[in-house]
Amino acid sequence: MATLPEITEEQFSEYKAQVEKDIKEHAAVLYMRGVPEAPRCGFSARSVAVFEDVGVPYHAVDLDSDRGLWKALTRINDWPTSPQIFIKGEFVGGCDNIVEMWESGELQQILKG
Amino acid sequence: MLPHEVKGRIESGISPEEVIVREFSGGTDHYEVFVVSSQFEGLMSLKRHRLIMDLFRAEIKTGEVHALSIKAYTPKEWPEKKKEFF
Q1: Which end of chain B is more exposed for a tag (fewer CB within 10 A), N or C?
Q2: What single-letter DSSP state applies at residue B40?
Q3: A17: burial class by Cβ within 10 Å (0-12, 13-18, 19+)?
C-alpha cells in the first residue's frame, strides 16, 4: 500500500466510471486485496467471511492486480486503506465497518430484508 | 510508527476519554486501536472511523502505518464493548 501509482485525471475518470458501474450493478461490492478464494490481507479475508456468512452474492474486485484502481478509490471515498466496501451503492467503509454492520444485523437486513 | 506515538496522536487529535493501542504484527506498522470519546455521540460508524483515520493519513500513505483497525465507541457504549474485547 506504500506506493500506489500516480494516475492521470483521464485515468481517474475511467476508474470512477468503472466504480460507478460496479456499484450500480451489484448490491454488494468488495474492493479487496486478492480474490475471495485467496485473499492477500487479513482484513480482506475477514470481509469475505462476512459476505459468505450473510450468503448473498457480492462482487469482489482485486486491487492488487489493478493498483491504479486502488489509488482512484482512495480519492473517490477519501479513505486510505483496503478493503473498500459499497452496499447498495453507498460507501460504508472497510473491514471494521462491515463487521460492525454484520454484528448488529444491519447488513443482513439491508441485503436480505 | 511506535505504539506510544500512535497513542499520543489520538490523544492530541481528539482528546478521548480512553485509548488502547495494540500492535498485532510483532513490528510497528499494524495497529488496532480502541478509542472512547464523547465526540462519537450521534455519529455513524464510518464518520467515527474517519475522525481517527484522518489522524494517520500521512503515515498510511508512506506505509509507516500499514494497517489500522479502529474500534470507536462512546463512553456509554464502552463498558459493554470492553467486556467483549478484554
Answers
A1: C
A2: G
A3: exposed
**Does A1 fall in a domain?**
no
**Chain A residues with at least one Cβ partner in B under 8 Å:** 1-3, 41-43, 78-81, 91-97, 100-101
| CA A95/CA A55 separation, integer angstroms | 17
Nearest by CB to B45, from A41, A79, A93: name it.
A93
Nearest CA among B64, B46, B49 for reference residue B6 = B64
Question: Over its length of 86 residues, how does chain B's per-residue pLDDT go in tens digits?
Answer: 999 999 999 999 999 999 999 999 999 999 999 999 999 999 999 999 999 999 999 999 999 999 999 999 999 999 999 999 99
State the nearest Cα–Cα gap between A100 and chain B, in angstroms.
Answer: 8
> A80 CB contacts (<8 Å, ≥6 apart)?
A74, B53, B57, B60, B61
Please state the pTM of the whole predicted model: 0.94
d(Cα B53, Cα A74) in Å, to the nearest integer?
12
Write out the residue range of the structural domain in which residue A15 sits: 9-112
> What structural domains does chain B harbor?
3-77 (3.30.300.90)
User: What are the angstrom distances between the C-alpha of A23 and each of A16, A28, A52, B62?
Assistant: 11, 7, 19, 29
How is A46-61 classified by DSSP, letter by letter? HHHHHHHHHT---EEE
A57: preceding bond cis by omega (within 30 degrees): no
Residue A58, CA atoms < 13 Å, CB-side half-sphere: 27
